[in-house]
Amino acid sequence: MAEGKSLPADLSDRGVTAQIAGAVLHPPGSGWAWLAVLGASGLLVAMLLVSIFWLFFKGVGVWGINIPVNWGIAISNTVWWIGIGHAGTFISAVLLVTGQHWRNSLNRFAEAMTLLAATCAAMYPVLHLGRPFYFYWVIPYPNVMHVWPQFRSPLEWDMFAFFTYLTVSLIFWYVGMIPDMAALRDTATGRRRQVVYGLMALGWRGSAAHWARWRRAYVIVAAIAVPLVVSVHSGVALLFAVGPIPGWHSTIFPPYFVLGAVFSGFAVVVMLAIVLRAVFGFRDLITDRHMDLLGQWLLATGLMTSYGYVMDAFTAWYSAEPFERGTLLDRVAGPYALSYWSAVVLNFVPLQLLWLPWLRRTMPVMFAVALAVTLGMWFERYMLVESALSRDFLPSSWGPYVPSLWEWMLFFGLVGFFLFAFTLFVRFLPAVPIAEVKEVLHEEREE
């Protein structure tokens, strides 16, 4: 493969269709590995259902939250899941609008990752309501009582942010998949599959008019999605920053949160890409060049996030405000030192390996670095939320927080839900876009 090219020169259109459609219609191996992953993640989903049932039966008192820490890992996990979803929107929309065509081998499964991560994130605020069966009260719908939601409540703006994010991401994901549904319809041999994929293709015949309208719709939805990359997570960060809590009241939070979100999202994209290459043999579609570029993005966003770490600590110390310094001391050498230093070490020490180009093309190294970043960002979110709440401006209310067993079950259950749904996605839908990869292939041949 020539330097600068993202796809092999000898890859043909028919080869692209055969690899991607074949992974759906004729999956490699006997299917036992797929069933094993589905079964293992299904057990975690069962644990999720048990934890939700117990929560509904007993109330939020089964969690470890109390005064002053009335936001536990439910909120830090919400921020973590939203962050993971950001890289999908970034790869899909921002790189499309800016003409970065190497994204075409990655955007489909990255968008699926975004949808699933946003779904996991949205579950926490609903479950945290106390009376989750009234969650629709935050929706401003016409009703006979003429009662409107409290628009000054952060919870209300969470609803708008999540709903907009999920809706635009779902539309963008589906619009991009329409030509590929037609390809599966024309390739499938079973009547049932032909009907299902034909319905999802919405009558696509591949005419010039279809391509022109599809391209226009795709770019328009991408342009709508671009502001979401910044607005959703910076909105969440502002909810923290405007709070009168030491450790949160900082103007650096919005860019700090957005960069950290893209950083953690790219880490999960790297892990999913490596697994897809290994399981489905997508090495000609997700090439070493793609992994090299992902490694560069991971390194760049990681260094930007490290700047946020330094400035957050510096402003706390330079403010000379005793409560801000107390929270910083708690993080660096107090009860939250484990989560603080875990975040620092996991996010930045393994990341330095990516300065070497040959290590960015070594899959075990890339997977290990991405896994370390994913764990490190979880520790960062936990440290930011819990350390600040446990030590506010009222010393008489200071108190520790310990997550309960049910909170951990809910968290690991949602990880299982993510894996379960993603396993179903790669089995029944094309994980890599057929039409867009062919487009890149032709463009690179003409260069």
UniProtKB/TrEMBL annotation:
<feature type="transmembrane region" description="Helical">
    <location>
        <begin position="217"/>
        <end position="241"/>
    </location>
</feature>
<dbReference type="InterPro" id="IPR005614">
    <property type="entry name" value="NrfD-like"/>
</dbReference>
<protein>
    <submittedName>
        <fullName>Hydrogenase</fullName>
    </submittedName>
</protein>
<keyword id="KW-0614">Plasmid</keyword>
<keyword id="KW-0812">Transmembrane</keyword>
<keyword id="KW-1133">Transmembrane helix</keyword>
<feature type="transmembrane region" description="Helical">
    <location>
        <begin position="338"/>
        <end position="358"/>
    </location>
</feature>
<feature type="transmembrane region" description="Helical">
    <location>
        <begin position="109"/>
        <end position="127"/>
    </location>
</feature>
<feature type="transmembrane region" description="Helical">
    <location>
        <begin position="405"/>
        <end position="429"/>
    </location>
</feature>
<dbReference type="GO" id="GO:0005886">
    <property type="term" value="C:plasma membrane"/>
</dbReference>
<feature type="transmembrane region" description="Helical">
    <location>
        <begin position="365"/>
        <end position="385"/>
    </location>
</feature>
<feature type="transmembrane region" description="Helical">
    <location>
        <begin position="253"/>
        <end position="276"/>
    </location>
</feature>
<comment type="similarity">
    <text>Belongs to the NrfD family.</text>
</comment>
<feature type="transmembrane region" description="Helical">
    <location>
        <begin position="297"/>
        <end position="318"/>
    </location>
</feature>
<feature type="transmembrane region" description="Helical">
    <location>
        <begin position="78"/>
        <end position="97"/>
    </location>
</feature>
<feature type="transmembrane region" description="Helical">
    <location>
        <begin position="32"/>
        <end position="57"/>
    </location>
</feature>
<keyword id="KW-0472">Membrane</keyword>
<dbReference type="Pfam" id="PF03916">
    <property type="entry name" value="NrfD"/>
</dbReference>
<feature type="transmembrane region" description="Helical">
    <location>
        <begin position="157"/>
        <end position="175"/>
    </location>
</feature>
<keyword id="KW-1003">Cell membrane</keyword>
